[in-house]
Amino acid sequence: MDSNRLRIDSINLTEILSEEDFSSLKTKKFKKGTLEYEDGTLTLYVFKSGKAKAIIYEDGEEFVLYFLKQNNIIIPETSCSIEFLEDSEVYLIDAEKFTYLFANKEFSTSVIRSLKHRAELERNIIKNLVFKSCKRKVALFLMEIATTQDTLIDGKYCIDLNLSIKDLSSFIGSKRQTVSTIMNDLLKKNVIGKIDKNRLLIHQFNKLENYD
């Protein structure tokens, strides 16, 4: 699930930067539960280890934009905060102080591609939150994950979805009980089926497309 909404694009610094470059980079450790906000600087956070989630708040609700793990990159901004889900270590790259890094074509391309993809994901998430019904949001979410992972079993999409109902409801901006009812309805109608705890099989993709 390296290129879907659950995790954003990665940038493996060890394959791009020299040992000399690494010696000049600052790292910072964050404890589980820490919230990080934009501080007015243009600083790239590249995850060395650990896990976090990027979240936005609206009317008392929390919306998960995506998870962050090793090699993921993000620039904290006023529109969202970063919540660390486990003890983590992050490379901090000041875009103004380390301008020489951006002379590295591969590094610059990776950063731009990652931030472009993140912006596209955010726009799609916001459009779904604003314009789609809860049933439609769940269906679109499952289809997006399915087509991104592109894993087939006997010609049917298999989804590796290591998410609780609470996490899923946060992703689509709906109440947990509502999402639970919708997922049970999809299972009951055999539109989707459970392979095991974390994997689903889409039995009827066409019905999922028209589920509303």
Automatic annotation (TrEMBL):
Keyword hit for Transcription: yes
Molecular function per GO: DNA binding
InterPro entries per record: cNMP-bd_dom_sf (IPR018490), HTH_CRP (IPR012318), RmlC-like_jellyroll (IPR014710), WH-like_DNA-bd_sf (IPR036388), WH_DNA-bd_sf (IPR036390)
Protein name (database record): Putative transcriptional regulator, Crp/Fnr family
Annotated GO biological process: regulation of DNA-templated transcription
Superkingdom of origin: Bacteria
Hydrolase keyword on record: no
Native organism: Arcobacter nitrofigilis (strain ATCC 33309 / DSM 7299 / CCUG 15893 / LMG 7604 / NCTC 12251 / CI) (Campylobacter nitrofigilis)
